[in-house]
């Protein structure tokens, strides 16, 4: 049996769908039912139920986007930086291996030679580099909390998208924002992300950190072209002149826009669809809200 923390959230729902489809028994824990943020309570539950693996899809993202984290810092710090350490303590006490959903938003840009950041690269969009959003800072701290912890996968998700219209879906965001920021990003098809991360456990690949993004990178303008090409929306999309204008008009805090490589995951035998193809696929199956 699998333990799922935060299973009622946007990412957690995708895990519920996956485990249900695969017919794998799981328990979706919600804080309202069992306060898994308390080490003693989570440890006792793990010792009683003895799940084979735990997935942590809990955390604080801010709604509708990371700007909201700037005004709820205590909750954001707790959910993203403190909670992973608490789960690590409980999983160590009960000897349960686990996986943690982190974020690629701890990087900005690309490597100096233009290639994507690897798992070996130190985050360059964090409190330590003093250039980040509060959300990104807490996600980087969450990873630091887990340094030296055995039996854990750290899975980096980035700007999720899929075929279902949803305010959290990157495609929906681009359809609804009044103006767009031109940027280059590596991004993750949500359902491929959950499949790939669970495959880490199923295939028993080595524990550690994995970038779980669709291979390649894509610019906002390229996504817009694919949206138009698909017929999902053919309007004229309006763009900000530059990041300064974006910050003045639409954002409270800087965004991470970055290129990553998921080559480590592929080398472990877990392949994801090339990013343009994955977007084309999602748009071809588009389900409006
Ligand atoms: N959505 C995105 O764009 C991305 C998300 N991620 C990461 O994925 C994880 C899940 O995100 P997502 O599903 O979008 O988030 P949601 O807000 O949709 O769901 C998160 C769930 O976490 C639980 N939770 C536990 N502690 C807290 C807390 N302090 N504050 C708020 N919620 C808490 C809640 O479940 P309950 O109360 O039921 O237990 C909640 O339903 C996060 O760690 C996030 O950083 C990474 C990259 C991109
Ligand atoms: C607000 C806004 C953003 N954007 C761009 C900036 C960025 O490239 C992209 C996404 O920005 P948002 O503000 O919607 O999303 P943001 O909250 O920054 O999204 C992030 O959420 C957290 C939880 C993560 O971990 C990330 O991986 C990512 O999904 O959209 C616009 O083009 N126009 C806008 O008006």
From TrEMBL:
GO terms for biological process: S-adenosylmethionine biosynthetic process. InterPro entries: dTDP_dehydrorham_reduct, NAD(P)-bd_dom_sf, RmlD-like-bd. GO terms for molecular function: dTDP-4-dehydrorhamnose reductase activity; methionine adenosyltransferase regulator activity. It is an enzyme of class 1 (oxidoreductase). Gene3D superfamilies: NAD(P)-binding Rossmann-like Domain. Pfam families: RmlD_sub_bind. Keywords: NADP, Oxidoreductase. It catalyses: dTDP-beta-L-rhamnose + NADP(+) = dTDP-4-dehydro-beta-L-rhamnose + NADPH + H(+). Pathway: Carbohydrate biosynthesis; dTDP-L-rhamnose biosynthesis. Its EC number is 1.1.1.133. GO terms for cellular component: methionine adenosyltransferase complex. Residues 2-284 form the RmlD-like substrate binding domain. PANTHER family: DTDP-4-DEHYDRORHAMNOSE REDUCTASE, METHIONINE ADENOSYLTRANSFERASE 2 SUBUNIT BETA. Catalyzes the reduction of dTDP-6-deoxy-L-lyxo-4-hexulose to yield dTDP-L-rhamnose. Belongs to the dTDP-4-dehydrorhamnose reductase family. This is dTDP-4-dehydrorhamnose reductase. It comes from Synoicihabitans lomoniglobus.
């Amino acid at each position: 049996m699998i333990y799922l923390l935060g299973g009622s959230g946007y990412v957690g729902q995708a895990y519920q769908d996956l485990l249900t489809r695969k017919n794998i028994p799981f328990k979706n824990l919600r804080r309202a039912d069992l306060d898994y943020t308390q080490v003693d309570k989570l440890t006792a539950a793990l010792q009683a139920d003895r799940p084979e693996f735990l997935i942590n899809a809990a955390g604080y993202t801010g709604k509708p986007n990371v700007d909201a984290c700037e005004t709820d810092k205590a909750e954001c710090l707790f959910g993203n930086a403190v909670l992973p350490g608490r789960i690590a303590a409980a999983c160590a006490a009960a000897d349960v291996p686990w996986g943690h959903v982190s974020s690629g938003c701890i990087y900005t840009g690309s490597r100096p030679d233009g290639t994507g950041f690897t798992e070996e690269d130190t985050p360059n969009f964090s409190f330590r580099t003093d250039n980040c959003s509060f959300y990104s800072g807490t996600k980087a701290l969450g990873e630091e909390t887990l340094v030296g912890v055995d039996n854990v996968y750290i899975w980096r998700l980035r700007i999720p998208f899929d075929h279902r219209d949803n305010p959290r879906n990157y495609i929906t965001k681009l359809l609804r924002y009044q103006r767009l920021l031109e940027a280059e990003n590596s991004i993750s098809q949500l359902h491929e992300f959950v499949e790939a991360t669970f495959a880490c456990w199923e295939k028993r690949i080595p524990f550690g950190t994995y970038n779980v993004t669709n291979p390649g990178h894509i610019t906002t303008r390229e996504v817009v072209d694919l949206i138009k090409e698909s017929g999902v929306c053919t309007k004229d999309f309006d763009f900000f002149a530059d990041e300064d204008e974006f910050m003045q008009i639409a954002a409270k805090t800087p965004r991470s826009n970055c290129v990553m490589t998921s080559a480590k995951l592929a080398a472990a035998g877990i392949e994801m669809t090339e990013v343009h193809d994955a977007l084309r696929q999602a748009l071809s199956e588009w389900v409006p809200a």
